[in-house]
Amino acid sequence: MKKIVIFSLLCTASSIFTFGQGSEHIFFRESNILKPFVSEIRSTVIKGELAYLNKLDYNYYKSDYTSRPFIEVHLGADLPFYYLVNREKNLKFSVSGYIGNILLIDMFEDITSPVINTDYFFGVQTSIVKYVENRHIKNVGLKLVPLFHESTHIGDEFSLHGYNDIPDFRRVNVSYEAWEIAAVVNDPDTMKTNLLSAKVGFHRLWDTNRGYYTTDSLETKNDLAPASEKNYEYYLQLNLQRTSGFLCSERWMQVISVEANNRLRFSYDDDVAEKRTWNFNIYLGWKYLWKDANRNMGFYLRYYNGIIPNGQFRNTGGYQYAAISIVYN
């Protein structure tokens, strides 16, 4: 699979020269191609969510958490490097970096309002989109992420209580580097019309022997966890946007966005087999379109079902999360 990444990098580099003549070269200005859909779990889309959830890691020291809402905050930023536009060949190409953070906090717990988990990630992305003249297909594109890094951290209250008061508590360090490749049909770019978009992608670790996580004897009371063995995931995303028709308008764009992700449910015990699971993330709502604005505010209902997507809790399945979400993208 690494050969596929190297080959894709060479093809991407050659495209700069192939389509360079007659092109406009732009540096350090953000493009709009191959932006993440709102349902993408790991993305730079800015969100604030008020959510109810049905379970957490069994080590959490509060037992009444299902009776109150949690706060989840997603922050992110794109770091544009290079952007190429060739209008003669109807082609766009970009190279950019990105950083992001996801924070889950028990805000309405009445003693310390503890942070449950924080995920940090960054990456480098190349994107290319070719526009075509077709009634149903507006463009096709390819996204390549040659480097992606994620590290996660549980909150201090969670960690200290677990280590001091729970005999079998373990602090697991989820930290890894990966690459990703994805193909898209009907990338929205700046289009504000009715459009159904689809994306399919594959994500794999660079160091498959090390796995997704490690443990330190000082943080696990000498009870180390075995390394993960299945070191890849894949996904399908669908995104429907509507500005004409029932319950939408040119100002209020209706958005239905779904990600189906097949990823690894971690296991930190030798006698419990790790397994692959399908996880579903769904957003339904409306985005208000400001005239000539690059980013807009949206209001959504979100539902997630699958493994807990936060940090070391990715060994826990049967997780359901329902939220009201305010999105800026």
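(the above was protein one; protein two follows)
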Amino acid sequence: MEIKNVKIGDKFKYGKNLTAKVVDFHIVTSLKTSKVVKYLCIAQLIGGLATNEFEVPFASVIRNKIK
């Protein structure tokens, strides 16, 4: 699945020395109209001690993507 030119599994630089990976997308929908309100990109740090997931802007993933 690809949303806004970001795919699950894309790796990107996060901060100075950290690398993160896109692990999921969340879709926010309206209960009243059932229309998609927005998409959220969820990432996780690679190689660190922390394993928590966090929201990251799509633009940050695209700008700092590791090829």
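Reviewer note on protein two: The mean pLDDT is 94.
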